[in-house]
Design a protein that fits this description.
The chain has five helices and six strands, in the order H-E-E-H-H-E-E-H-E-E-H. It has a six-stranded mixed β-sheet, with helices on one face. It is globular. Helix 3 runs parallel beside helix 5. It is of the alpha/beta class. It has a single domain, classed as 2-Layer Sandwich (Double Stranded RNA Binding Domain), CATH 3.30.160. The longest helix is centred in the first third of the chain and has 17 residues.
């Protein structure tokens, strides 16, 4: 039994160190019923001012917001949307990002079965990135898409963070309803 617990601990450590780059990102979306979304083809970014994420490393990172906006612009362009700077856009796009620490106490049990004597917990940085489309004329939320997952180690590695943002935004935009 002791050997099994040692093997589980070694495997869990390897997964914690190596597995965060491939950590699953969960994407979901919501579309308002009867929203005039199919006719909307243009958007502009909301002027929301400074956005706090809950992580000072991102709040003070000027590349973070630009990367989110560039990734969303590219993904939306691929879906046939046109970005406009003026107030004649059909939709207003908002983004929200948050980071918090999460505790996963059941990770080893899920991956290796129950180990009654092993008490390993995993603390990780959990991130949520959300896009909201608001109808410009009515100021009504018509679509929300979000991605959630571990961002452990990404905040301190700009290239890794950029790649993760690009993938998450692409998957969020993929969940937009088809016209």
């Amino acid at each position: 039994m002791r050997r099994r617990c040692v093997l589980v601990l070694v495997a869990a450590t390897m997964i914690a160190v190596l597995g965060t780059g491939c950590a699953p990102v969960h994407v979901q979306s919501f579309t308002e019923r009867d929203a005039p979304f199919a006719a909307a083809r243009s958007y502009r970014w909301a002027d929301d001012g400074a956005r706090a994420t809950g992580d000072p490393r991102l709040d003070s990172n000027p590349f973070f917001e630009r990367r989110i906006m560039a990734a969303a612009d590219a993904a939306l362009r691929g879906r046939g949307f046109e970005r406009r700077a003026a107030d004649d856009a059909d939709l207003v796009l908002h983004y929200h990002a948050s980071v918090s620490q999460a505790l996963d106490t059941a990770r080893i049990d899920r991956e290796f079965g129950v180990c009654a004597q092993c008490r390993v917990t995993s603390v990780y940085d959990a991130g949520t990135l959300m896009l909201d489309f608001v109808e410009r004329r009515t100021n009504r939320l018509v679509w929300r898409g979000w991605a959630e997952g571990s961002i452990d180690g990404m905040v301190d590695d700009q290239a890794w963070l950029d790649a993760h943002i690009d993938r998450a935004i692409a998957r969020i935009v993929d969940s937009l309803p088809r016209p």
